[in-house]
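Appendix B, Record 12. Input sequence as logged:
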Amino acid sequence: MQHAEAAGDRPLIPRPERTPGALRAACAVVAPQLLAAYDQAKDQALAEAVEHGSIKPVHAYLDHWAALIEIERHPEAAKAYHRAEYLAHLATALDEAQEHLTMASGIYRDAAKAVRDA
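Logged structural output:
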């Protein structure tokens, strides 16, 4: 994400805290189309935590959504991420799909690192 900011891709909102409420509120602002998926992921993480007697699913859900929100906070990064995912789904050749998925996963990894390092 540092590269995106250096290129003028300023965040739309401040980075939210890594809590369910703060991430949901940020999602409502930067990616309202993802709210249903966010709520479903939270419910699934809580159900898995109860089922397995472990908080690990909750941490995984928070980490994942913190990274997604980090991407969505930066319009150019979000545009590149969604474009790469879209083109991967349209690709007719395996190497073409892999190229686009590599781009999307790189953006995701950068976002996850930015959140971890914050």
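Residues 1-7 have pLDDT under 50 and may be disordered.
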